[in-house]
């Protein structure tokens, strides 16, 4: 029911989703590569090393994500063009969609890293909850609700809003955990202080 019809937005969403999955593969690769380091050091009660591993992984993820963010903001037409040709309307909508949908790309990698962190430290419930926050808890409901009020723009803004909310929840979980870990003495189990 938008000015773009139904086929054009669906095609663009497919393209942007594929691009997002490529970036997500980098983020998940770093997060999963850090998982055994975090797990081993957490088991060895070497909490400073656990914190260091998480912080270095977060810096790497944010660094890579900032690079991708600038690519998506500066070259959306060229990136979409990799997937084929289309009309000027197609490229206009695709550029707008990519710029907005990927707006929080530079920090969205914190959520999968934090989810992996909790799995690595034996806190699977928190890890699973965090893994579900962006897609299940925030994005899907926003994709249903926002278009009712804002049309196609509501669907476009659902991504960055879901990313922001997932990062806020992740940061609240990890900040408490890292703060508690900072107070543990080396060799002491959490809760023994």
Structure description:
There is one protein chain. The protein is mainly α and 193 residues long. Helix content is 82%, strand content 0%. It has 8 helices and no strands. The chain has helices at 7-43, 47-74, 76-81, 88-101, 105-108, 110-120, 124-150, 152-183. Helix 2 packs antiparallel against helix 6 (110-120). The chain is elongated, with a radius of gyration of 19 Å. The mean pLDDT is 89.
Tally the beta strands. 0
Which consecutive residue ranges, at least 5 long each, have pLDDT under 50?
none
Radius of gyration: 19 Å
Straight-line N-to-C gap = 60 Å
Helix content: over 70%
Q: DSSP helix count? A: 8
Beta fraction of the residues?
under 5%
Q: Label the overall shape.
A: elongated
Structural category:
mainly alpha
Nearest-integer average pLDDT: 89
Major sheet size, sense and barrel closure: none
**Order of secondary-structure elements:** HHHHHHHH
Task: Name its key features.
193 residues; mainly alpha; 0% strand
Helix-strand layout with pairing:
Blueprint: H1 7-43, H2 47-74, H3 76-81, H4 88-101, H5 105-108, H6 110-120, H7 124-150, H8 152-183
Helix pairs in contact: 1-2, 1-4, 1-6, 2-6, 6-7, 6-8, 7-8
């Amino acid at each position: 029911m938008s000015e773009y019809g139904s086929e054009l937005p669906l095609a663009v969403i497919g393209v942007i989703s594929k691009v997002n999955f490529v970036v997500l593969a980098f983020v998940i690769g770093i997060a999963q590569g850090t998982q055994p380091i975090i797990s081993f050091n957490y088991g060895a009660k070497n909490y400073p090393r656990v914190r260091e591993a998480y912080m270095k992984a977060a810096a790497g993820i944010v660094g890579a994500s900032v690079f991708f963010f600038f690519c998506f903001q500066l070259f959306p037409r060229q990136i979409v063009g990799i997937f084929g040709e289309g009309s000027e309307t197609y490229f206009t909508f695709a550029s707008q969609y990519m710029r907005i949908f990927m707006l929080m790309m530079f920090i969205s990698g914190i959520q999968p890293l934090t989810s992996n962190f909790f799995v690595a430290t034996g806190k699977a419930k928190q890890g699973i909850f965090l893994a579900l926050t962006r897609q299940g808890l925030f994005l899907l409901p926003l994709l249903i609700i926002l278009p009712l009020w804002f049309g196609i723009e509501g669907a476009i803004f659902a991504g960055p809003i879901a990313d922001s909310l997932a990062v806020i929840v992740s940061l609240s979980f990890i900040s408490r955990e890292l703060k508690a870990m900072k107070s543990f003495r080396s060799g002491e189990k959490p809760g023994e202080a």
